TrEMBL record:
Pfam families the record matches: Epimerase
Family listed: Belongs to the NAD(P)-dependent epimerase/dehydratase family. Dihydroflavonol-4-reductase subfamily.
GO molecular function: oxidoreductase activity, acting on the CH-OH group of donors, NAD or NADP as acceptor
InterPro entries documented for this protein: Epimerase_deHydtase (IPR001509), NAD(P)-bd_dom_sf (IPR036291), NAD(P)_dehydrat-like (IPR050425)
Name of the protein: NAD(P)-binding protein
Domain NAD-dependent epimerase/dehydratase residue range list: 3-264
Keywords: Oxidoreductase
Length: 343
């Protein structure tokens, strides 16, 4: 299948690209600069030489019409995977830095497809657990989160701080996508992938570990000694491995039954303390940097796991066929990948 993948330089997109190419799809991926394209090209020399992989430069998805030229391709696209969206808290303006690129990026690509790429049948959008969770209910004991819910965040609440802004950016962008489908009745169907915390090996180009993607930063913090005196609070107690998230994106356009559905892709519960425990068990070289059993913090709420919401990932298993990787495998492979980058 001829596929357009946005945000090819990202943590999740790099794995998605890998799955796409291994399954024989022909891919155009968007990146913000030629330099980023060249770095991916170096990793996939054979694929670029034989024309299986090429690039389109889209410097800013928040610009109106950013994808107008990109969606036109020969041979024409049949599927589009939209992963590009800001996920970091290093911002000055929630509206400009988070909401606009997430929302305009999503509605923009859908409009461009509708206008100029009638051959596209399937669009898969990377949404998030952030678009499902209701942060106001906290740990919400006894509640089971599933695809049935939307984060009820308002625009006013979104502007309060970067974390609220990020969660809102994912919520508003996903809602805008479903509204687009309903109002515009395009030729394509949409699926969304809604992961919680994504851990796992980094395979995208990285100048240094200082620019590590947001969700993996806590694993690095643990290995570098940041939790020696106190383990950071966990916040969100559910996680998934990046390779399973990548597979979910590709399966979602390959499988007809996935059309028109959201997928809550979650492997299990975790707390930050478990990250440190897995590193300690598998990497004795970091023993001095890690917290011990008596270090405070990083636990489930008092009362344990039963004080935290549960999750329903049945749809992702039944329809996408996911088999979730274990927490230990995910953390071990993450640390090994950091070691290849100089940890
Ligand atoms: P990354 O930061 O690695 O990837 C984000 C990607 O989006 C990068 O390629 C980035 O390009 C691109 N991007 C951001 N803003 C713009 C913009 N204005 N114009 C063009 N490109 C832009 O993070 P992830 O891989 O983790 O995130 C990928 C997707 O997954 C996002 O939609 C995120 O919300 C979602 N997600 C991630 C989770 C996680 O725990 N990691 C959990 C749930 C959802 P560049 O690097 O060049 O700036």
């Amino acid at each position: 299948t001829r596929v357009l993948l946005t945000g090819g330089s990202g943590f999740i997109a790099a794995h998605t690209l890998d799955v796409l190419l291994k399954r024989g799809h022909s891919v155009v991926t968007t990146v913000r600069t030629q330099q980023k394209a060249d770095r991916i090209k170096a990793d996939y020399k054979t694929e670029t030489e034989k024309g299986q992989l090429s690039f389109s430069i889209v410097p800013d998805i928040a610009q109106e019409g950013a994808f107008d030229k990109t969606v036109i391709s020969d041979p024409p696209f049949e599927a589009v995977l939209h992963t590009a969206s800001p996920f970091h808290f290093n911002i000055t303006d929630v509206q400009k830095d988070l909401l606009d690129p997430a929302i305009i990026g999503t509605t923009g690509i859908l409009s461009s497809i509708k206008k100029s790429a009638p051959s596209v049948k399937r669009v898969v959008i990377t949404s998030s657990f952030a678009a499902i969770v209701n942060p106001k209910t906290g740990n919400n004991p006894g509640h089971e989160y599933s695809e049935a819910e939307f984060n009820p965040v308002t625009h006013e609440e979104a502007l309060q701080d970067a974390a609220s802004g990020y969660r809102a950016s994912k919520t508003f962008a996903e809602k805008a996508a479903w509204e687009f489908v309903e109002k515009e009745k395009p030729n394509f169907s949409v699926s969304t992938i809604n992961p919680p915390f994504v851990f796992g090996p980094i395979i995208h180009a990285l100048d240094s570990l200082d620019s590590l993607n947001t969700s993996n930063q806590r694993i690095l913090a643990a290995a570098q000694g940041g939790w020696k005196d106190e383990i950071a609070a966990t916040g969100t107690y559910v996680w998934v491995d990046v390779r399973d998230v990548a597979e979910a994106h590709v399966n979602a356009f390959e499988k007809p039954d996935a059309a028109g559905k959201r997928f809550f892709v979650v492997a299990g519960h975790f707390r930050n303390r478990d990250i440190a425990t897995v590193i300690g068990k598998n990497f004795p070289e970091y023993k001095d940097k890690l917290p011990t059993d008596s270090t405070p913090g990083g636990d489930y709420p008092e009362g344990g796991l039963k004080e935290v919401y549960t999750f329903n990932n049945k749809r992702s298993i039944d329809i996408l066929g996911l088999k979730y990787r274990s927490f230990e495998e995910s953390i071990v492979d993450s640390v090994k990948s950091f070691q290849r980058k100089g940890l």
